[in-house]
Amino acid sequence: MKKTSSDINDTEEISEDVLFERLRLTVDKGQTPLRVDKWLSTHLADTSRNRIQSAADAGMIWVNGKAVKSNCKVRGNDIVQVLLDHEPHDTTIQPEDIPLNIVYEDEAVLVVNKPAGMVVHPGVGNAEHTLVNALAYHFQGQTDIDMNNPDIGLVHRIDKDTSGLLLVAKTPQAKTHLGLQFFNHTTERTYNALVWGRFAEENGTIIGALARDTRERTCYNVYDTDDRPDAKEAITHWRVLEPFPYVTLVECRLETGRTHQIRVHMKHIGHPLFADDKYGGKEILKGVPTQKYKQFIQNCFALCPRQVLHAKTIGFTHPLTGQRMFFDSALPDDIEQLLTKWRRYATDN
Questions:
Q1: Theoretical Cys-Cys bridge with 95: which of 111, 137, 199, 307, CB 3.0 to 4.6 Å?
Q2: Among 18-27, 205-214, 215-224, which range has the highest average pLDDT?
Q3: Are residues 142 and 280 located together in one domain of the fold?
C-alpha cells in the first residue's frame, strides 16, 4: 500500500517502489549550512518556496536518502532529491523535422547557428519544437547517436531569444573533453549586443557573482557572495564596436558562462540590452522626449522584438585532433536591419 504524507516523518527512509525521482542535485562543496527549502528555491526555476515547503511536508524532499522537513539544513556535497508520488511524464526526446543551420560537422562535433525564438532543450511549457528535437531528427541516420543519452548532445546553452552558435558533442568522449574546456575557461566565445547608453571607455571587464533574484525568480542578479553563498562567479569582458546617439553595439567575451550572464552584467553597469523585456531594456531609457523619437524606438522594438544578443563566435580545441577551431557567424537579419535603422537615425540627427 502506498504511504501517505501522514505516514512519513523527517527521519524515515521511504521505499523507492512508491516514489519516483523527479530531480537529483548535489550541493556545492563550499556551501555553508542553509535550509533546504531556501537552497532549492535558488535552484528551481518557476517554483515558489511555499511549493517546495509543501513538497517537504508531503515527504517529497529527500536529503542523503531520507525524507526531510523544509527547515533541514543542507551542507556541501549533500544529495538533494525531489520526488513524485506518480510516474513522471515521458520526457523522451522525439525527432522533429525542423530546419537547422549547421555550420560544421564531423564524427565528433557539430556547430549549429540557432535562430532567435527557438528553445534549446525541452522543458516545462516547451516539450516540442526545440533545437534538441531538431538535432534528434538530423541524427536519425547515425544509429550510434541518441539524443536521449545525456552523455552526448549540447555542451552549453543560450536563451530562447538569443541567436547564434552552439556546440554539440556527438560522442561521450567528445562531451567530456569539451565540457572540461568550458569548465577550465579555455573556450573562446564572443557575443554582439546592442545596449542602452554610451560608454566613456572603449573596453572594460565586469566581475559580479550571479544568483537568482530573490523577488523575481525567473531573473538573476549580481550579489555579494557574503550575502548569497550560492552566487556563482561570473566575468564578462566587453569592448565598444559601434556607438550610436543613445545606444552602443558592443562585443562581450565570456570568461564564465552563467545563465543570463551578459544580460545581467550589462544591466548591472547601467547598460541593459536593447529590447530586453526581462531586464528592463524594452523601455525608452535614453534619448530625447519627443513623440518622433518615441515612435522611432517603438518601430525599433517592432523590428527586433527580442533582446539584441547574438552568440557570434566560438573557439575550442577539437576533442579528437587537438586542432584549435574557430567559427564566426553573421548577424541575423533582425539585428542587421535594426543597426541599419540606428545608422540612419545617427546620420539624420
A1: 137
A2: 205-214
A3: no
Buried b (16+ CB within 10 A) or exposed e, 181-195: bbeeeebebbbbbbb
Collapse the DSSP code of 203 into the 3-class scheme (helix H, G, I; strand E, B; otherwise coil) and give the result: strand
Q: Which of 49, 84, 119 is the last residue of a domain?
A: 84
Decide if 268 contacts 208 (C-beta within 8 A): yes
For residues 134 and 201, state if they share a domain.
Answer: no
Residue 106, all three cell numbers:
564531423
CA dihedral 290, 296, 299, 305 (to 10 degrees): -90
Exactly one of 37, 78, 159, 161 is catalytic; which is it?
A: 159
DSSP characters for 259-314? TTHHHHHHHHTT-PBTT-TTTTTTS--SS---HHHHHHHHHHHHHS-S--EEEEEE
- The domain boundary, picked from 56, 84, 112, lies at 84
CATH of the domain at 18: 3.10.290.10
- pLDDT of res. 13: 34
pTM score, whole prediction: 0.76
- Catalytic site residue 159? yes
User: Range of 150's domain?
Assistant: 102-182
Tell me if residue 209 falls in helix, strand or coil. strand
Structure confidence at residue 123 (pLDDT)? 66
Q: How many Cβ atoms sit within 10 Å of the Cβ of residue 168?
A: 26
pLDDT in tens, 126-185: 668 899 999 999 999 887 888 888 889 999 999 999 999 999 999 999 999 999 999 899
Q: Do 197 and 288 share a domain, yes or no? A: yes
Please name the residue that has the C-alpha cell 552563467: 258
Q: Is residue 338 part of a domain?
A: yes
Q: What is the pLDDT of residues 141-153, one digit of tens each?
A: 887 888 888 889 9
Number of domains in the chain: 3
Co-location of 202 and 167 in the same domain: no
Interval 9-46: pLDDT, tens = 333 333 333 456 678 889 988 899 999 998 998 887 66
- For residue 259, tell me if it sits in a domain: yes
